[in-house]
Amino acid sequence: MFNKRKTIIIILVVLLIIITGGFFYINQSYEPLEGNDIFLNKDYVTEYDKYYLINEDSEKNSALIFYQGGKVQETAYAPLCDLISQEGYTIFLIKMPFNLSVFDIDRASLVLDQYRNNYDNWFLAGHSLGGAMLADYISKQIENEENNFKGLIFLAAYPAESSNLSKKNIAVLSITASQDEVIDQNKLKKAKKYLPFDTQFNIIKGGNHAGFGNYGPQKGDGDADITKKEQWEQTVDLIVNFIKKFE
User: Which residues are registered as beta bridge partners of 175?
Assistant: First the structure.
């Protein structure tokens, strides 16, 4: 009886540790650097419960939905999204539960359902985990013949085998950075076979993983040889040129 009770206590303690550790993990995120909120206080930015709407009255009638990287607060991507919006595009910067898009992969549909008829061209973009989750999302949309998006943009991201896009009717832009030591280079290389044959691949020289956002150093990342602003500007140029092909 004593040994049985002791075993139950040990199991309960282990479960408590796992639950506590998991709770601590999902509540620890990379937050935007000081001064980042200036980008969210502009008169063309509106905050809603599950997303930020940037530049609603776009000049080019095109919209982009953005998913954050894993455990990175979505507002850390405000500077990048703001630069894209300045090129005449509408941006929906999505908020995710616990800053993990895995908890609501389909949140893009929430935006699409409400604004579908407001814009002619729709695009998806995601950093790191956000990009991987969007690959899963768009793959299912295409399989269900519900795809409304012209293109998918990966920032330091790649699809899993289960999100095979190689034979799917979707244009893809892949942007990585030469100093990125967070992304698994072997998996990135292998994932190319899960992408359309005409995928555009671009490497930002001197950039790193965290450089796509504005949240400071990321654990395990390489040191950047260019500024964040330079990385954002190069990223925006690539994204804008990609979108222009559909206008």
Answer: 155, 202
Residues 6 or more apart whose Cβ sits within 8 Å of residue 61: 119, 120, 121
Summarize pLDDT for 55-92 with one digit per residue, the tens.
Answer: 998 888 999 999 999 999 999 999 999 999 999 999 99
CA distance 39 to 85: 11
User: What is the number of helices (H) and of strands (E) in the chain?
Assistant: 6, 8
Q: How far apart are CA 239 and CA 191, in angstroms?
A: 21
CATH architecture of 31-244: 3-Layer(aba) Sandwich (3.40)
Q: What are the boundaries of each domain within the chain?
A: 31-244
Q: Are 77 and 105 in contact (CB under 8 A)?
A: no
What is this structure's pTM?
0.88
